Amino acid sequence: VQLVESGGGWVRPGESLTLSCVASGFDFVSSAMAWWRHPPGRERMLIASITADGQNTNYRDPVKGRFTISRDNAKNTVYLRMMNLEPADTAVYYCNAGRFRPEFNSWGQGTQVTVSS
Questions:
Q1: Cα torsion through 109, 20, 56, 92, rounded to 10
Q2: In this predicted structure, what is the pLDDT of residue 9?
């Protein structure tokens, strides 16, 4: 299993970013996927998930209405569009299979998102 996240960076409050996660080594098209984040000094938490067919999504309250998860099964890729970013969104962002809990114990390297003025 390989999960490769990218797209992070430093942005100012109110700006946007889109993260990508390219997956391989498992049946991506049959797998629900999720984005997680690990803020400094806190535990990693799930923030958004999407079903295998892309028809249903779920979001945690802190990101609801600002973040959008999507996927392209032809490219084995899941995306996270993040808008109106806030300093509280600063974290390392990861993807994993599974809708409510991580399917795999091994994680990718993650991608750092820093929101600061």
A1: 40
A2: 97
